[in-house]
Amino acid sequence: MSAPAEEPRLLDAGEAALVVEFGTTVDPAISDRVLALDDALDADPPEGLRERVPTYRSLMLHYDPLVLDRDTLAARVRALAAGAAARAATPTLWTLPCCYDAPHGEDIAQVAERTGLSAEAVVSTHAGATYRVYMYGFAPGFAYLGGLPKALAVPRRASPRPPHPANAVVIGGGLAAVATVPMPTGWYVIGATPSRLYAPERDPSFFVGAGDLIRFEAVDAATFNALTAREAAGEPVARRGEAR
């Protein structure tokens, strides 16, 4: 018989938000508990609950204190957290094309130098892994991914590099991400995907959900250009499968 799950910590974030913390590390089991509670509250939300924000290790709950008092919400959370051991939603496995060639993988040489790998090994190691979407944050559609192989676990830059193009595939600090909008970054840009994870005119704007899995499929520059044109014409180029 497995040990009962540890009760989460409840932390107030001002007078209208409650953080439900399940752990302190990047861990799929902790993420499962976060998302299981998120699913349970989505299925039966208490009146006055305004927004749920899952992160690596916690779920932030924004609520209207004039409708839902803190103690009632806390009791509801404890009851649901004790019973919600598994997610209601089935994760999706997404395959995203990714071009690591110049000019898209502009930092691969630096990553190769820092890791002691060849540029080809950087690409094959990154493309050979399966990544878990833990959360969105920082910028619209910025998907934080776990599962980066240890061989590529370089620290972030000491200072940000100039802005990268949209849909950059980046690594840094032992994590991976897809950065959907151009911006300066301390992460290393090792490729780009023609798939638009974030499109404000689309419903939903973010088609990849927390808990989903991502694999990157290496494509050459000509294929990247062709897929970018298809995506721009409204044809999604990300392939969807069922995670097992």
Task: Give a nutshell description of this structure.
Helix content is 24%, strand content 26%. It contains five helices and twelve strands.
Description of the structure:
The chain is an alpha+beta fold and 244 residues long. It is 24% helix and 26% strand. It contains five helices and twelve strands. It has helices at 28-43, 70-83, 108-115, 119-127, 221-232, and strands at residues 9-12, 17-21, 49-54, 58-63, 92-98, 130-136, 143-146, 168-172, 175-179, 188-192, 213-218, 239-242. The longest helix is centred in the first third of the chain and has 16 residues, at 28-43. The model has no long low-confidence stretch (mean pLDDT 92).
Compile the SSE list and pairings.
Layout lengths: L8 E4 L4 E5 L6 H16 L5 E6 L3 E6 L6 H14 L8 E7 L9 H8 L3 H9 L2 E7 L6 E4 L21 E5 L2 E5 L8 E5 L20 E6 L2 H12 L6 E4 L2
Parallel strand pairs: 5-11
Antiparallel strand pairs: 1-2, 2-4, 3-4, 5-12, 6-7, 6-11, 7-9, 8-9, 8-10
Helix pairs in contact: 3-4
Summarize the amount of helix as a percent range.
Answer: 10-25%
What's the story with the biggest beta sheet?
A: 8 strands, mixed
Radius of gyration: 19 Å
| N-end to C-end Cα span | 24 Å
Low-confidence stretches: none
Strand order of the main beta sheet, please?
A: 10-8-9-7-6-11-5-12
Oligomer: single chain
Which word captures the global form? elongated
Global structural class: alpha+beta
Mean pLDDT, as a whole number? 92
Write down the secondary-structure element order. Answer: EEHEEHEHHEEEEEEHE
Total number of helices: 5
The fraction of residues assigned to DSSP E strands is: 25-35%
Overall strand count: 12
